[in-house]
Every structure is written in C-alpha cells, then in structure tokens.
Amino acid sequence: MSAPAAGAAADAHPPFDCSKCGRTVRGQKADDAGWCETCRQELIRHSSRQAYLPAAVVAAAFLWLLWWSGLLESPLMAFWVALGGVLTFVAYKVARRVLFDLLRGRATGDGKG
Ligand SMILES: [Zn+2]
Q: Which protein residues have a CB closer than 5 Å to ligand 1 (ion)?
C-alpha cells in the first residue's frame, strides 16, 4: 500500500544516478556534473583543506614583500597587515574554487580528453 501524497515532496527532484558514486539518489537535486549531495560535500571538504596551502603561500609571500620593502616599519603597518589578511582570504576562496573544479575534473575526466 503506497500513499501517493508521501511522494509529493520528492517529485520536485526526480531520482537520479550520481555520476560519482553511482548510487540512485532520491529527494536531492543533482549538481552541474550530476553528483549527489554527499559526493559534492566531500569534494568541497577536500578542496577546502587543500586551499590552505596556496593561501599560506600568498600570506608568506606578502609578508616577505612587506619585510623586503620595509613597509613593516611604516606607520601604515596595520593597514598593510590587514590588506595581507584580505589577500590571503581571497587567495583561499579562489584556490578552493579552482581546486574544486580541478578535483572534479580529475574524478570525472576519465574517458575523454
Ligand atoms: Zn554520489
């Protein structure tokens, strides 16, 4: 005995086969590459973790530049450090975005190319 009303919510997102783990997923929406929510979250976690490295490199390079140019001793030092913080944050966001595409390309890129 099935109640048609119970499936009403799931109708918004028809079941699909995740192109990453191959599971049939219900009640979720596939993303651009046809991945389920679990696989996408895992990919985001991976890219977030790996994005720390380029962000740290940017922060170190910026600090080195400040030290090299003598700006660390300038009266605007707080401003430059704040700017470095912003730059590091932007680098982190960009790196995460790039890594996301990169890791996804590696996971789905077999077969063509
Ligand atoms: Zn999946």
A: 18, 20-21, 36, 39
pLDDT tens digit at each of 113 positions of the chain: 544 554 455 457 889 999 999 999 998 899 988 999 999 999 999 999 999 999 999 999 999 999 999 888 889 889 999 999 999 999 999 999 999 999 998 887 654 44
Q: Is the sign of the CA dihedral 42, 46, 52, 58 positive or negative?
A: negative
The structure's pTM equals 0.74
Backbone angles phi, psi at 25, to 5 degrees: -115, 135
Q: How far is the CA of 23 from the centre of ligand 1 (A)?
A: 6
Cα(87) to ligand 1 centroid in Å equals 34
Distance 17 CA to ligand 1 centre (A): 8
| Domain ranges across the chain | 8-108
CA 4: distance to chain centroid?
A: 38
